[in-house]
Amino acid sequence: MQRIRNIGSTTIGDGHPVYVIAEIGINHNGSLDNALAMIDGAAQAGADCVKFQKRTPELCVPKDQWHLERDTPWGRMTYIDYRHKVEFDADDYTVIDEYCKRRGIDWTVSCWDVDAVAFMEENFNVPFYKAASASLTDLDLLNAMIATGRPLIISTGMSTMEEIEAAVDEIGTENLMIAHATSTYPCKPEELNLRMIETLKACYPGVPVGYSGHEVGLTTTTAAVALGASFVERHITLDRAMWGTDQAASVELAGLARLIRDIRDVEASLGDGVKRVYESELGPRAKLRKVISTKVGA
Questions:
Q1: pLDDT tens per residue, range 70-92
Q2: CATH class of 4-273
Q3: What does the buried/exposed string (b/e) look like for 225-255 if buried means 16 or more CB atoms within 10 Å of the residue's CB?
Q4: pTM for this prediction
Q5: How far is CA 164 from CA 117, 150, 261, in A?
Q6: Residue extents of the structural domains in the chain
């Protein structure tokens, strides 16, 4: 059974290039200029998509935390005010939508609540949705996203296999993609468990499986591609020293360009598994083989 999903004009899955998602998330710190700079960097690096996070703060922040104060780059403020500070509104996303079209790059969001899905559906036409690992057990939210008819990526960090199975049983596999993840920021290499990519592919034969990484460094993400990831996602930032909880587990734009270059090299190197003698080998073969069979490959 072939694992492919069509998102807009792009196909993800078997036989197609790895789809690279640059997760901006809330690393823009509420600044549209920061977001546009990251879109520029992602497009220049060769990413296929940038992704944001959309929340309705009153639904996502427990009421007992609304008025807890915290220090922020904008001074001391309540947590609910901070959550509003880093949310983009319809006007902001209209600018992002138009800018991404000019740069030739997809954009989408992880919706964190049902109202956020309604907001997106009312205002924008994104090619797919993403459910964060924290949302895997929020079946109402998963159903709201899958009901739009758009493909949905579910991320599997901090989840048991039973929870993954329950989510997939609830929403079905017809429009589904699954991302292996470990929800530690940043994540130690020994906890990445990249062979879960193979496990998920075996469990869900018709579903494209990818990788959402939160590690420091790039090598392990290219290893995920070698293990068969159809798409990869990494958080990006303008500067890992910026304020914010996700910055330390993010890739700066120069690193993103190196990562995508390496992903494309890994893709090209994997081949099809059929042994052949390449034309470039014929000269060394004639020179170095003392006895050459008339049958190539003998």
A1: 898 889 999 999 999 999 999 99
A2: alpha beta
A3: bebbbbbbbbbbbbebebebebbebbbbbeb
A4: 0.94
A5: 21, 20, 32
A6: 4-273
